[in-house]
Design brief:
This protein is an alpha/beta fold and 440 residues long. The chain is 47% helix and 11% strand. It is built from 16 helices and 14 strands. The strands form four sheets. Strands 5-6-7-8-10-12-13-14 form an eight-stranded parallel β-barrel, surrounded by four helices.
Length: 440
C-alpha cells in the first residue's frame, strides 16, 4: 500500500527549478570537507512530529490529514511504520529517530507495553534490511504519562524511578537490535516547579546514578553508540536540570560522566535558554562534546518551543560554521525535530517542509564552507587577539607570569590601544556571502 501516492522521489534539480517537490540547493553528491553532503550532514526524520503529530495545541484539536489514521492501536502503529519507510525512501534520507511510544502504543501494563514494542521493532528491523535509511538515535518517552508528573530519574517516588530504568533498559536493547548509532536522554520533566518541596541534591545524585547504570548496562549488552544529553532550560517544568550545554557540562564533570556523554543540541532549546543556536554549538564544540543536532527554529514573537522547520539562512550558516569546524558530527546528525504548522495539514506538506529544511542547511553549509576557506572570520579573530601571540600576552597564555609581573608590566604602560570589533562590518560580510550563494 502507498500512503503518499501524490508524491514521487524527491530529486535535486538546482536553484532554477520551480518544482516544489525538488531540492534547489541540497545536492547529496556535493563535496564538503572530502565527504558527500549526504554523508556530512546526515539528515534524519523525527518519527514523532512527522508521523504521530496531529496538529493539536492547547486551544485546538487535531488538524492533520494522514492516510493511515483510519487505523487504531497496533494496526495504526504498523501502518505508520509502512508509511514512514515509504517517506524515507522518497525523501532519500539516511536516518530517522524515535521515542519508544512514537512507534508502539503504551498501555497501563509495562509487560504488555514491552511486548508491543517488540512487535513494532521486529517490523522496523525487517524494513531496515531493504532500506538505506538507518536509525540515528532512539530514546524513551518519560514525560507524557501522568506517572512522570514529577520527573523520571529525578522523581521523589522510587517506584517511578524503577519504571524509568525499565524503559531505558528496553530502549538500549532496542538500540542494539536496530543498530542505533546513538542513544538520547531528554529530561523533559527532570527538574522542579518550586524549591519549596524539592530535594535538589538528592534528585541530581539520583540522576547521575541513573546515567551510570545506563552506561553499565550498555557495556553489558554490547551497545557501543554515543550517549547524548539534549539540554532544555524549561518547558514543561519551570527549571530543568539540563538547562543548557554549560550547565550540562558542569553536571557531567561533577559526577564523572563527561567521558561517556556528548550533547544533542536543539536550536529552539538554545533560544529558550537565552542563547543563540551557534552559542550552544560552540560551547559544546570547544569542550569536545558536540554530538548531534535537532534542527529546527523558534518564533521570535512566541516564548515557547514552536519546533518550526529551519528556514533562517543566517542561523543555518552560523550553525554549519561550528559543525564544519568540529569536523562534522561523528555518529550524530541533523535531525529535523520540527513539525509542520497546524494549517499545513496535507500529507504533501511533510515533504515540502523537509525539502525547505534540507535546502536551508545545504545553503548554510556552502556559505560556512566558503567563509572558512577564505578565512574571513578566522583571520579577523586572529588579528583581534594578536596581543596573546607574543610578549606579555604569550606569557599569560603559557602560564609564565603572575600578578606581580603583570602589575610591573602594567605600571610601565603609557597608553592602551584597543581594536575595533567591527561587528556591523562582519555582519555585512556575512550577508554578502549569503547573497553570493543565492545568486550562484
Amino acid at each position: 500500500m502507498s500512503y503518499f501516492q501524490n508524491v514521487g522521489p524527491i530529486k535535486y534539480e538546482g536553484p532554477k527549478s520551480n518544482n516544489p517537490f525538488a531540492f534547489k540547493y541540497y545536492n547529496p553528491e556535493d563535496q564538503i570537507n572530502g565527504q558527500s553532503m549526504e554523508d556530512f550532514l546526515r539528515f534524519a526524520v523525527s518519527y514523532w512530529h512527522t508521523f504521530t503529530g496531529e496538529g493539536t495545541d492547547p486551544f485546538g484539536q487535531s488538524t492533520m490529514v494522514r492516510p493511515y489514521n483510519t487505523f487504531s492501536g497496533m494496526d495504526l502503529a504498523k501502518a505508520r511504520v509502512e508509511a514512514s519507510f515509504e517517506f524515507f525512501q522518497k525523501m532519500d534520507v539516511p536516518y530517522f529517530c524515535f521515542h519508544d511510544f512514537d512507534v508502539a502504543p503504551e498501555t497501563d501494563n509495562l509487560s504488555e507495553t514491552l511486548k508491543n514494542i517488540d512487535v513494532i521493532v521486529a517490523q522496523i528491523k525487517e524494513n531496515l534490511k531493504t532500506s538505506k535509511t538507518k536509525l540515528l538515535w532512539n530514546t524513551a518517552n518519560m514525560f507524557s504519562h501522568p506517572r512522570w508528573l514529577n520527573g523520571a530519574a529525578t522523581s521523589p517516588n522510587a517506584d517511578v524511578y524503577a519504571y524509568a530504568a525499565a524503559k531505558v533498559k528496553k530502549g538500549l536493547e532496542v538500540a542494539v537490535e536496530l543498530g542505533s548509532e546513538n542513544y538520547v536522554f531528554w529530561g523533559g520533566r527532570e527538574g522542579y516547579e518550586t524549591l519549596l518541596n524539592t530535594d535538589m541534591k538528592l534528585e541530581l545524585d539520583n540522576l547521575a546514578r541513573f546515567f551510570h547504570m545506563a552506561i553499565d548496562y550498555a557495556k553489558e549488552i554490547g551497545f557501543t553508540g554515543q550517549f547524548l544529553i539534549e539540554p532544555k532550560p524549561k518547558e514543561p517544568t519551570k527549571h530543568q536540570y539540563d538547562f543548557d550545554v554549560a550547565t550540562g557540562i558542569g553536571f557531567l564533570k561533577t559526577y564523572g560522566l563527561d567521558k561517556h556523554f556528548k550533547f544533542n543540541i536543539e536550536a529552539n532549546h538554545a533560544t529558550l535558554a537565552g542563547h543563540t543556536f551557534e552559542h550552544e554549538l560552540q560551547v559544546a564544540r570547544i569542550n569536545g562534546m558536540l554530538g548531534s543536532v535537532d534542527a529546527n527554529q523558534g518564533d521570535t514573537l512566541l516564548g515557547w518551543d514552536t519546533d518550526e522547520f529551519p528556514t533562517d539562512l543566517y542561523s543555518t550558516t552560523l550553525a554549519m560554521y561550528e559543525i564544519i569546524k568540529n569536523g562534522g558530527l561523528g555518529s550524530g546528525g541533523l535531525n529535523f525535530d520540527a513539525k509542520v504548522r497546524r494549517g499545513s495539514f496535507d500529507p504533501e506538506d511533510l515533504f515540502l517542509a523537509h525539502i525547505a529544511g534540507m535546502d536551508s542547511f545545504a545553503i548554510g553549509t556552502k556559505v560556512a564552507q566558503r567563509l572558512l576557506e577564505d578565512g574571513v572570520l578566522e583571520n579577523f579573530i586572529a588579528d583581534r587577539y594578536e596581543s596573546y601571540r607574543s610578549g606579555i600576552g604569550l606569557e599569560i597564555v603559557e602560564g609564565k607570569t603572575d600578578f606581580k609581573k603583570l602589575e610591573q608590566y602594567a605600571l610601565g604602560l603609557t597608553e592602551i590601544k584597543n581594536k575595533s570589533g567591527r561587528q556591523e562590518n562582519l555582519k555585512a560580510i556575512l550577508n554578502k556571502y549569503l547573497l553570493e550563494a543565492y545568486n550562484q
